[in-house]
Amino acid sequence: MRGLSLALALGLLIGGVGSVPAVAADPDVLDVSFGGSFSSGNTYTAATGEVMGGTLTRRTGAESLDPARGLVLAGGADGVRFQPGTAISGGSVQQSFLVETAFTPAATQSSLATVTAVGGAIFGRYNGGNLQYGFSSEVGGQWQDVVQSVPVPSAGQQHVLALAYEVGGGGATLHAFLDGQQLPPAVSTSGTATWHPDAGAEIGVGNEVHPSALQRGLAGAVRQVRLATFSGAFNPADLRLAKPVVSLAKVSVGFEGSIVEGRYQPALGEKADPAPVVTGGRITEPGRLRLDSGDVSWRGAGLDGGVLAETVVSPEVLRPGAELIGLGGAKLVATSNNTVELRAGTRATAVRLPVPSVKEGVKYHYLGLAVDPGGVVSVLTAPGVAAVSESAPVTAVDEVRWLTGARGTAYGVGVSTFLGKPPVEAQVLKALPCVVGNLTPGQTMPVAEGECVTSLVAKASAIRPEPRQVDWQRMEQTAFLHFGVNTFTGLEWGHGDEDPDLFQPTGLDTDQWARTLRDSGFKLAILTVKHHDGFLLYPSRYSDTASPRAPGWVVRATWWRRSWRRCASTG
User: Fold this and answer.
1) Paired sense of beta strands 277-285 and 288-298, if any
2) Please, are residues 281 and 293 in contact by the beta-carbon 8 Å criterion?
3) How confident is the model over 110-121, as pLDDT tens digits?
């Protein structure tokens, strides 16, 4: 080991975590995680940071708080009731609001066990094997329930049920989300929710507030509940407890895979389930599909809500008559090398394309065709840029076709679903075409969102370490040494409240430490001189210099440094 450069580093690691809260459209009326207490009888006292614009009370007094689970409920009459300081419902008050509940259900629920309820009219509850949500409305002396339902979520796991009550159009719509996934809305065009006269201003958590239904308690736990008002149209971005899935990719293909018996086999990082069918085409190199009067088609399930189909192609594909995208009866057809036509029903709308984009010398066009739930068809000529949007007769989308009769190179195809209007994040082909430019080796490489695997692999192979990183890697093995109070208590982690007199090293041979490490091939050792428990192996203004042990141990730390240097220069 003679001639080796041995180093001793004294290390101190300190970590921190920060977060920035989301901002709602309107201030929250209620947002509690049940970190407080029922310190005033059955009235809840909020913890620091919780929002409670009103009074929150438990019903039976048997409801308990658990640090890990939140509000624990046994069903039956258990539950909590929130009375807002300013009513959001009741009587003639019809205000739009949303309520989100994070809950963990038990395996067994009683009939109509309620997750959340508002005003004796709006409900989200168990009904046999379904989770039922909706509202009750009285119109012309006749009562009607506007109801939707989905299968119950799995027991023993946390879920988030979000209900957003939106007033307008002569009635109301109850938007619903379960764990961020949009559910079919409950819609009434003939009337709004009819509040019970004794419960119109109340919100129930884990139980009903309707006076005749107070035994519909949820069995399980509620981790958090949030209530907020909003104006105008409901925006899913206002949800907070479970981020709404505003778009969901079904197909995202950059043609880095292969074609086997007419079906495309996705490469790493691509998505296509089931596999698209390719006719009249071949992959000439990763990222390029060469078509000769062929097409690409895909038929899949779960195309609810809005649907966006995309493709990225070379300019040569834009030959008159080539059907670039077919979606729900609407077609995008090339009419020249710089114009396309939207055909839906008997209507045809011309769209002029921008000049081709260029990426590493490769020219290409991005094209998208979107159909939203209201029957509006949009043509996109760049990610997030709608050149034309118009109402048109469309059918249910169950198949997507690209590049029918086209000749030339295609760089990718994609399908995604979305809520409302097609958001920018719905575009799944933003990083195409897959092009590897002239890379200069370096210590870092920029990477774009959604960048293709072929490019990522090329960039990874061009990464080079800094000289100091090479020096460190040549050391091959590094030792970490922890020597403190935990050595004498046998604890893995100290708490900082142990008696420092426990630290009484005797027969200490730091030369033996250094020899063992040296003989085992270690060229670097790090002695941790302060850890989270606060014990120091060096003098500080907080040390007890009057104690013989404090300066004595400082001497021993110096011995370790000398031992390491001495053993490094011998052998």
Assistant:
1) antiparallel
2) no
3) 999 999 999 999
